[in-house]
Amino acid sequence: DDPLVIAGRVFGSRLITGTGGAANLAVLERALVASGTELTTVAMRRMDAEGGTGVLDLLRRLGIEPLPNTAGCRTAAEAVLTARLAREALATDWVKLEVVADDRTLLPDPVELLDAAEQLVADGFTVLPYTNDDPVLARRLEDVGCAAVMPLGSPIGTGLGIRNPHNIEMIVASAGVPVILDAGIGTASDAAQAMELGCAAVLLATAVTRAQDPERMAAAMRAAVTAGRLARLAGRIPKRFWAQASSPAP
Amino acid sequence: DDPLVIAGRVFGSRLITGTGGAANLAVLERALVASGTELTTVAMRRMDAEGGTGVLDLLRRLGIEPLPNTAGCRTAAEAVLTARLAREALATDWVKLEVVADDRTLLPDPVELLDAAEQLVADGFTVLPYTNDDPVLARRLEDVGCAAVMPLGSPIGTGLGIRNPHNIEMIVASAGVPVILDAGIGTASDAAQAMELGCAAVLLATAVTRAQDPERMAAAMRAAVTAGRLARLAGRIPKRFWAQASSPAP
Amino acid sequence: DDPLVIAGRVFGSRLITGTGGAANLAVLERALVASGTELTTVAMRRMDAEGGTGVLDLLRRLGIEPLPNTAGCRTAAEAVLTARLAREALATDWVKLEVVADDRTLLPDPVELLDAAEQLVADGFTVLPYTNDDPVLARRLEDVGCAAVMPLGSPIGTGLGIRNPHNIEMIVASAGVPVILDAGIGTASDAAQAMELGCAAVLLATAVTRAQDPERMAAAMRAAVTAGRLARLAGRIPKRFWAQASSPAP
Amino acid sequence: DDPLVIAGRVFGSRLITGTGGAANLAVLERALVASGTELTTVAMRRMDAEGGTGVLDLLRRLGIEPLPNTAGCRTAAEAVLTARLAREALATDWVKLEVVADDRTLLPDPVELLDAAEQLVADGFTVLPYTNDDPVLARRLEDVGCAAVMPLGSPIGTGLGIRNPHNIEMIVASAGVPVILDAGIGTASDAAQAMELGCAAVLLATAVTRAQDPERMAAAMRAAVTAGRLARLAGRIPKRFWAQASSPAP
């Protein structure tokens, strides 16, 4: 009764997962099931490289929608090409758009990203861009027609959580499309915090797949996203400097 | 299969609640049910003052164990007396020990608290002391025989969350009894964080009872405690300064 | 013996100030003197609007180099035009480049900013761009020939300090030109922290001009920049989880 | 014109230093001079152990007042004895009172500390107690007659800075004697922050003596304490969520 809606599609789960980093397909399967996810990103270039369709078969079997991504692309041209190949291969016009600038930070290149987003929207794609936490770039991406904006909490794989909650709050305050926290989540409280800040969903991969116990961490993230969403809706108590007794003094 | 054990008693839920701050008994009932709690503190002095046993009746009906507390006591003598009255009234030798120093901070008085704990242990009580986040005082309380230690995250009712995670980590690292985060929780991610730091349980009251929607916040806290506990057990990824791709570069 | 060098020019002070927000010229003068600054930004569009050259006269009298800025510009075209007018008016080819996206955040527009920087460099300007804290955009600005990069700590006038020290550290780690922390400074420790993170200088305006006592706050900022710079050079002690005695136990 | 006054004595510098951790007396001398300190703690038990009076001679030569401390004491009895020996040896009734609970945390034992403080005040000492950041204990120490309270920022030697600024603010809000931040300072911005929170002075040792360049770090700390004090007095700008232009829009 509180579904996530992206571009008119309805999802019961607000946890979107990635498949990267999993030790093997059996581990991945247990983690995906435990996460309750309904939407999972798949790296198109990686699939080409490995020639494997095991992940896609797995998602089909589990009834999870695959969301092709353009991980590894450095330019708008590369990303647009990859998205088109993915559309043919997977028969979906949804794409998680990634255009990163370098290996050390894996941060998005704002100019190439915006360019690619514009081209893909014009080409009929439903574009979900991975972006930095800049409120201006988030708005530009929405303005060119992206179906969601997916700011990072911190760089991919760092596990540093949400380094700048203020920026996420500003993005949420201005966004007319779902804001999905993507990248940087390290542990459950990070995911809960993202939802409390007003994000509509959380996307994560290695926080689960590289945890010591991926299945259990997937269950943790599932519960955390639920917790954070409920807390956001429930309306938290204000913060105070001095104490306040829970019951009147006798 | 991962129960909370305090003084040999087993609890399925790691969320301990308080009753203070609830608008009325109907609201409280819905919140308690949504929280899944099995142990709930009750202010003895408040009950005396109000002459009401409504809360106790409610807990009995819901099958929730009441944990009398000594809220409002300022000295060891007062607290010991209150605990003894509670033992007679409720037929339990468990007590949540509170000895606060003043109204503005509601912080525990370390000297009076330790004194009261020692007396009550000697008198056969199972003592769960509300304490500040000082690792030394926590150890002293354990040394005199307390069954758990319950450090604050921040002062009662402030909703400031865990102001000093480093202290909580030090307390957990040294404790031989369960560490229960008590006071200061404002929202779900605070509760998840407490569990991730290694706390065995979380105790909260007004974060739920004074939320705009107490029932929904209770559900949030229940999920958050589960999330944080699972994340702790699952073994999170390490934090890194630079990024790391979830999948190998193509 | 540790001067700031930008584009070959040498400055004895690492504190760059702005003039906006000052109650009047007398207050501004005392603050500028107390700050020890040698370089001060002046809003060209504001000067047009107010028709006043009082600030420029003041800077000349105090021997402080004026640095025209393009505050209020929303597009590359506007900023380029403003910079050219400033060059004629002030006989300097230095410009602090600002291209903001909206009034609510006053955050830079990354696309327009990069475009303007490229044009101005090509036109022979020494460009000091006010940018967000995105390490990728900072690198792009350096790549197109900017003489420094000036990331924000937080949005202009918020006084929120450095919201994302991790980003500033990443920018410093990759930069080949001076990194100048610009915007968001609220108090002295913010300025010291900027220098400790490796910034070459700090630029601030309203933290001084709108303080209750601007002159005293200017002196505070001067000392803070010195303190942070010295601490960076001195090599701080590492952080530890557990304590370490300063002297051996007896 | 803004001196530090403790127990009626006036100090021009608000930076109190320790001598522990210095590589040798020559390094220590340069650091002390650069710090501008007028008051320096000396470990009495260490002096006994090492039989050296080199530090005391140095302080005398530099015109710096020695403040004997009871580092290494674990009980009130030990601390009282050490203080009395110090009084005879140094002909001063001032003492920095330390009673730590264990080697791993070096945190004060609240019960022993309070006991020792009471005894020493009764014996005519001017007592400056090293305490944790508990506002209640700070008040108790003031109530028994201590001339200052010296809460930690974080455990001795950790360099973690001020882990709980909220507690320091609560202590300052209630204190009638000077609050001196003692322990945990790692770098200059930590010292500035302490002063901004309202502390009257900062005490540190290894942040300087174990820095890579102790003399330069001493100069950094001197400037930082000045910066933080001036900023406190100058009245900082308020924090805002959204931006505010420093000059009116054109």
**Number of E-state strands of chain A:** 10
Run of helices and strands of chain A = EEEHEHHEHEHEHEHEHEHH
**Multimerization status:** homotetramer
If helices are DSSP runs of H or I spanning 4 or more residues, what is the number of helices of chain A?
Answer: 10
**Biggest sheet of chain A, in brief?**
5 strands, parallel
Q: Which spans of chain A have pLDDT < 50 for at least 5 consecutive residues?
A: none
Distance between the termini of chain A: 42 Å
Largest interface: A-B, 72 and 72 residues
Please tell me the overall pLDDT of chain A.
Answer: 94
Helical residue percent band of chain A: 40-55%
Strand content of chain A: 15-25%
Output the structural class of chain A.
alpha/beta
Rg of chain A over CA atoms, rounded to whole Å, is 18 Å
Shape of chain A: globular
The strand order across the widest sheet of chain A is: 5-4-3-10-9
How does this structure look, described?
Four copies of one chain form a homotetramer. Chain A has 250 residues and is an alpha/beta fold. Chain A has helices at residues 25-35, 44-50, 54-62, 76-90, 110-122, 135-143, 165-174, 188-196, 206-209, 214-234, and strands at 4-6, 9-11, 15-18, 39-43, 65-69, 94-97, 126-131, 150-151, 180-182, 201-204. The first copy, chain A, has ten helices and ten strands. In chain A, helix 1 packs parallel to helix 10 and helix 4 (76-90) packs across helix 5 (110-122). Chains in contact: A-B, A-C, A-D, B-C, B-D, C-D.
Task: Name its key features.
homotetramer, alpha/beta, five-stranded parallel sheet, three-stranded parallel sheet, 10 strands, 43% helix, 16% strand
